[in-house]
Structure to design on (98 residues):
C-alpha cells in the first residue's frame, strides 16, 4: 500500500475498505460521515476517508478507504468495493464473478 508492505485482510462480507490511521498518517484525509453497521448489530460512525494505492499480485489500483484508529491485527481490510476494482472473485460453484 503506497509502496509499503502491510497486513491486509480480504473480507467479502465487508462493503467498504478500511485502513488503520497509522498507515496513512502522511496522506490527505477528507472529512465525511459514514455510519457502519457491525456484524453484532452495533452502529458506529467513521469520520474520515483517504485515497491509497494498492498493488496486489501485480494489479495496481487507487482506492478510497475509510480511516479508523484501530484494526486489531491488520493495516487494511479490503471489502467488496476493493474486490470489484480488482476484477471480482469467483465465489459460486457455477463460476459467477461477484
Amino acid at each position: 500500500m503506497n509502496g509499503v508492505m502491510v497486513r491486509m485482510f480480504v473480507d467479502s462480507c465487508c462493503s467498504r475498505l478500511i485502513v488503520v490511521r497509522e498507515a496513512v498518517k502522511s496522506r490527505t484525509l477528507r472529512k465525511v460521515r459514514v455510519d457502519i453497521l457491525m456484524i453484532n448489530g452495533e452502529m458506529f460512525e467513521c469520520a474520515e476517508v483517504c485515497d491509497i494505492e494498492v498493488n496486489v499480485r501485480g494489479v495496481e489500483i487507487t482506492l478510497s478507504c475509510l480511516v479508523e484508529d484501530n484494526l486489531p491485527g491488520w493495516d487494511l481490510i479490503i471489502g467488496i468495493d476493493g474486490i470489484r476494482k480488482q476484477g471480482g472473485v469467483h465465489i459460486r460453484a457455477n463460476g459467477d464473478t461477484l
About this structure: The longest strand covers residues 43-56. Strands lie at 8-10, 18-20, 30-37, 43-56, 59-68, 76-78. The CA atoms of residues 22 and 69 lie 7 Å apart.
